[in-house]
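Listing S7. Sequence submitted for prediction.
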Amino acid sequence: MQRRHFLKNTLKTAGLGAAGIAAAPFVATAKAQETITWNMVTSWPTNFPALGTGANDFAARIERLSAGRMRVQVHGAGEMVPPLEVFDAVAAGTAEMGHSASYYWRGKAAAAQFFTAVPFGMNTTETNAWLYHGGGQELWDEVYAKHNLKPFPVGNTGTQMAGWFKKEINSLDDMQGLKLRLPGLAGEAMNRIGVTTVNMPGSEIFTSMQTGVLDAADWVGPYNDLAFGLHQVADYYYTSAWNEPSAILEGTVNLDAWNELPDDLKAVVTEAARASNLAMISEFAFRNAQALDTLVDEHGVELRSFPDDVMAALHEASQTVIQEQVDNDADSAKVYESYMAFQQLVRRFTDVGEFAYLKARAQVGA
């Protein structure tokens, strides 16, 4: 009797085991095909040209490259979180992804500023080379890991303009006491030469200029500045591109969410970021050219360059601000050492290549 009971239980268990083994491939396949849905919060108005649409492009590439296994819902500034709270929201897991600019987070991670723009620093091609080949991405990963984030370059505006001014700047004296919207290291440098700078979302610039809260404002370049109508609140557009010779747009991923992704989807996000980065650079080159013609030819915008004494003062102030940050923050020191070493490496060829060609083209009027 005991023997028959034992055999019955053994056969029953074996049968269940066989069923479980047979079902295992199906369960694994079903799990592999499970759709992952993430939220992305941004610092830009929904569908804002290049910046907002760049976030959309990043999300769409992730879905296409993953064959629908991964979907990202994009939320414009203020829809889930305020525009300047993207960093905290993604770090905390309120959203799995963010799209913004790293110099907004200088109060949280001082070294983050180097991953948007460095005054008098590298241009866009040089910056991408540093990130992809010169150790920049690895340093960015190291800095952001302390805040539970995984960063990527997901766009670049290229060389930005120096900003819109209500009055013409003829000397350093004309800068004294101006109220200017300008974030990052460049904003700190402006403070050192007598300007009062503030950081605010792009959506607030027009009204602040119109009501006199601001005397001047940096935003991006012709394409985005035209979209906000900044030519309606200031006559002078300064082309002295000292502040953001390159301006990276960052994509951030909550590090816990990132670590849970299978390797193939990590590769999807990485390649989607790279493709979106390069796509935005091309779009800005085209759209800025069109928008500049519109601003000058149709709206009569006055293009100006800062006088020599202003540029000299800004260069000196930039070096002082950067050195103070490097002296007081170990992460900044490590990142800036890498950044400057790479700039010195690539500058020689940039000068004899791109810069020499642009001078030659200007000389012959081609």
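Caption to Listing S7: primary sequence and predicted structure tokens for the chain studied. The chain is about 50% helix and 15% strand. The two ends are 102 Å apart (CA to CA).
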